[in-house]
UniProtKB/TrEMBL annotation:
It is found in: Cytoplasm. Member of the two-component regulatory system NreB/NreC involved in the control of dissimilatory nitrate/nitrite reduction in response to oxygen. NreB functions as a direct oxygen sensor histidine kinase which is autophosphorylated, in the absence of oxygen, probably at the conserved histidine residue, and transfers its phosphate group probably to a conserved aspartate residue of NreC. NreB/NreC activates the expression of the nitrate (narGHJI) and nitrite (nir) reductase operons, as well as the putative nitrate transporter gene narT. Keywords: 4Fe-4S, Coiled coil, Cytoplasm, Iron, Iron-sulfur, Kinase, Membrane, Metal-binding, Transferase, Transmembrane, Transmembrane helix, Two-component regulatory system. The lineage of its organism: Bacteria, Bacillati, Actinomycetota, Actinomycetes, Micromonosporales. Its cofactor is [4Fe-4S] cluster. This is Oxygen sensor histidine kinase NreB. Residues 169-196 form a coiled coil. Pfam families: HATPase_c, HisKA_3. The chain crosses the membrane at residues 20-41, 47-67, 79-100, 120-141, 148-169. Residues 400-422 are annotated as: Disordered. It comes from Micromonospora trifolii. It comes from the Bacteria. Its EC number is 2.7.13.3. PROSITE patterns: HIS_KIN (PS50109).
Length: 422
């Protein structure tokens, strides 16, 4: 509010200054004419010639200032006007000293119409004319030269001081105008930046939302594969085995019980996956113990020996790292059950300084890596792809070695990021 009030006052003052700029010449001319007629000075030119010059001077000012105010910005034309103004002022001062009131207008008009150093010339010329009128006319130059010079010096000092303050004020006003323009430009740029940032923010929100949806879809795809898909595969395998052992009551019951246990376990893991909760084995045990439990259950279901070993010093890892290694072990064992026809599987969890490695080796059929390159599993399924995605997601690497008839070795190496055991 203060800034707006100051701007309004400055604008009001500029309007009054413009009005005085147009009015002063006619006031000085009228006053000088009245005094010249009422109290004529000695050696005056005469009433009629003086009036003629005064009317001509008034018309000159009216044409350039009153009737054409827009001409003030045309420097060359205004220089012509100012030269004519001084010429009329000199003629009138020579006709009657009372026209010093009109000559004084030269001080006022020098700054609006003259550029730079030409203002100094206009002020000096005006000071000479005003000093001559104050001394009583042209006779003072010849008869009382020291007095005239003193008057000229006095007017120069007064006019110079006033001109200096006027120049300083003009410079400050120019700086203020530039500052206002710069602030306006800065405000415009800031407004544009805010508008662009708003659009960019909306775009980033959209991208983040889309990325979040995609990430959640990928997470659910991995979890479904690691829980429901593997569980359903195990259930189908057990039910097929039960169908084949229908005549053997004990074997049939064992396979059906295994299928029911797998179904319950898969349902529990599915619920935990939807809620983004750690797998149940890691909630109740450390990673090495969870792998031992996993190997025992898998061996009991598939009738294949599974040896689990741990090297190094076990320590709590980041939950995401432990989940990745557990899921990798589950997927590797699932692949062995479906494709390898192995008689033995070995799982080794190795704790090292910077990495933790899970190695899963079997003595099964193996496959040719040149015919079936990574990341797809031998059967063309999603298993190795999901495993690779999980391991890469935590900054690890997955390696697979296999040859037909020589078994398969899978190695998942992940950073040993510290964390609490869940």
């Amino acid at each position: 509010m203060t800034c707006n009030g100051g701007h309004d006052r400055l604008t009001s003052w500029r309007e009054r200054e413009a009005s005085l700029y147009r009015v002063f010449p006619f006031g000085g001319l009228t006053l000088g004419t009245l005094l010249a007629l009422v109290a004529p000075a000695p050696h005056h030119l005469g009433a009629l010639p003086t009036l003629a010059i005064a009317v001509a001077a008034g018309c000159w000012v009216a044409w350039f200032v009153t009737l054409h105010p827009g001409w003030q910005s045309r420097r060359t034309l205004m220089a012509v006007y100012y030269a004519g103004l001084l010429a009329f002022a000199a003629a009138l001062v020579a006709a009657s000293p009372w026209y010093g009131f009109f000559a004084w207008v030269g001080y006022i008009h020098a700054f609006p119409v003259l550029p730079g150093r030409w203002r100094v010339a206009g002020v000096v010329t005006t000071a000479i004319l005003v000093a001559t009128s104050q001394g009583g006319g042209l006779s003072v130059v010849t008869s009382r030269l020291p007095l005239w010079l003193l008057l000229v010096l006095f007017n120069l000092v007064v006019a110079g001081s006033a001109s200096w303050f006027a120049m300083v004020a003009e410079q400050e006003d120019a700086k203020r105008k530039r500052l206002v323009e710069e602030l306006g430009e800065t405000n415009r740029q800031l407004t544009e930046t805010v508008r662009e940032n708003a659009g960019l923010h909306a775009q980033l929100l959209t991208q983040a939302r889309e990325a979040g949806v995609l990430e959640e879809r990928q997470r659910m795809a991995r979890e479904i594969h690691d829980t429901l898909a593997q569980g359903l595969t195990g259930i189908i395998t057990q039910l097929e085995a039960a169908e084949q052992s229908r005549d053997r009551s004990a074997d049939w019951r064992r396979h059906v019980d295994n299928a029911l246990a797998l179904a319950r376990e898969s349902l529990t893991e599915a619920r935990r996956s939807v809620q983004a909760v750690r797998p149940e084995p890691l909630e109740t045990a450390r990673l090495p113990d969870a792998l031992v439990e996993l190997g025992g259950r898998w061996s009991a279901l598939n009738g294949v020996r599974a040896d689990v070993a741990t090297t190094g010093t076990p320590r709590p890892l980041h939950p995401e790292v432990e989940v990745t290694l557990l899921r990798a072990a589950q997927e590797a064992l699932s692949n062995v059950a479906r494709h390898a026809a192995a008689s033995r599987v070995g799982l080794t969890l190795s704790y090292m300084a910077d990495v933790v490695t899970l190695d899963v080796r079997d003595d099964g059929a193996g496959f040719d890596l040149t015919d079936q390159p990574l990341p797809r599993e031998p059967g063309g399924g999603y298993g190795l792809t999901a495993m690779r995605q999980r391991v890469t997601r935590v900054g690890g690497e997955l390696a697979v070695e296999s040859e037909p008839g020589s078994g398969t070795a899978i190695s998942a190496s992940v950073p040993a990021l510290p964390g609490g055991a869940g």
